[in-house]
Structure formats: structure tokens, C-alpha cells
Predict the structure.
Amino acid sequence: MQNGNITTFDSPEVRSLRPRRLWQFSIARIGRGLFRLLFTVRGLGAFALITLGVIFTKFGSARRLIRPLVYHEMARASVRLAPMFLFVSAGLGLLVIGQTVSWLTRVGAINYLGPVMVVVVFRELGPLLTAFLVLARIGTANVVELGTARAMGEVEALEALGIDPVHYLVFPRVLGMALGVFTMTVYLILGALASGWLWAFLQDVPLRPTQYIHQVAGALRGLDFALLALKTLAFGFIIAIVTCYHGLAQPLRLEEVSHATVRAVAQSVVACVLIDALFISIYLAVS
């Protein structure tokens, strides 16, 4: 009651407060989201610096223990994924290269085949698609394995035995995933180019293999190979860092592992897209 009058929920005074409260709620929610983003970036940056420090200071230590783990992670991120990448490269060749060759032939622009293939497949689709596939198969497994180990107390047991968890658990995954993404990107690109010409051949496109290889090779530069290697290594590194951070760097309960996996996948995708945008700006600056 105000000045002898009863204020109801449908009164003009209350209705005038609703937009203001909604606006304040929206601002508060955005602010909390920004703070969570800053804390996550700070945590990931600190974890990445710690991992790099371990890599440089303990690169040659405990070789008999660490080297088999690195080979295992490389095989898990490359050789074991070869059948899936073979299927994906065939699909990429059909959906992108085969159709591109067919349409360029129809409009009489087959001379632009090389630059189109380099930009679409070599620079963009190949590395990004490989990173997402490795993230889906291996990155999620990292979060589950490390998160379960952290929840079960295995990480504390390693520390009690005097074993550095970052050196034993993170270092092999970072190195193995970085090299795995690089090798599988090359495998995917070569498979897509070969299957693309095969699909074009089945469509009776008058394009000889030598002409096809010559156009693609003629559009490539040395900078493309260097930036491809750097980009794929960066993709593998950031995926390993994000997934290991969410599985290892924070205390978890078993029921929280699935939520940590979802967050790790989402943040890895965003990080890969940002890295790809950075390399696009580099391509544009030097070309």
C-alpha cells in the first residue's frame, strides 16, 4: 500500500519496472559470461605455459617411459583413424572437388581449378575438417580419461610417487595429437584430391591426370606448405591443451566429466576457428 493506494502486480508502476529489471538481468548475465570467459582464458593460458615449460625442460628425460606413450598417442590420433579419414576424403572429393571440376568444365573455367582447390581444400577444409574429426574421436577421449583419473584420485597418486602429471599425462598427448593432426591433414588432402579426380573421371570430364596435377601443383607455393604445417600443429596443440585442461587441471566428480567434455569440445572448436581466422589474415597479408 502506498499513500493509501494498493499497488498490484498489474499496476503501471510494476509494469514500468519489468523492462528495467529485464535489462539489468541481461547485463548481469552478460557480465557473468564475460568473467567466466576471462577466467577460462586465463586458466588455459596458464596451463599452456606450464605444458610448454615441461616440454622444453623435460623433453629428453624419462625417454623409456615417455617415448612409448608418445608413439601410442600418435598412433591413436593418426593410424587408427585412417579408415575413417579414407571415407571422409572420398566424400570430400565427391562433394567438393568432383562437383567443382564438373562445373568449371561446363562454364569453360577449368584453368581456375588449381587456385580453387588450393584455397578450398588445401588451406581451409582439409585442416579444419581434420582438426574437428580428431577432436571428436581423440579429444573427447582425453577429457574422459583424464577427468576419470582425476576423480578417482589417480593424479594425486602420481604426485605422491614423485611423477609430474603434466609430463606423464599431458606431454605425450600434446605431441602425439599435434603430429597426428598434421599427418592426417596431409592424408585427407591427398585422398580428397585423388577421389575428386576419380569422381570427375566417372562424370566423363575431359581432364587428364597430368593436367589435373599440374594445375593443382602450379597453384601451390612454398608458403602454403609452411603455413599448412604451422596451422595443423597449432590445431593439434590447442585441442590437446583444451581437452587436457578440462580433464586434468580442475577437480572433478565422476558425474561432472560429461559436462567437462561438452565444454572442452565447444572451446576447442572456437579456438580452432580463431586460429584459422588468424592464418587467413596471414594469407591475405602476404599475398
User: Anything to note?
Assistant: The chain has a mean pLDDT of 83. Residues 12-57 form the longest helix (46 residues).
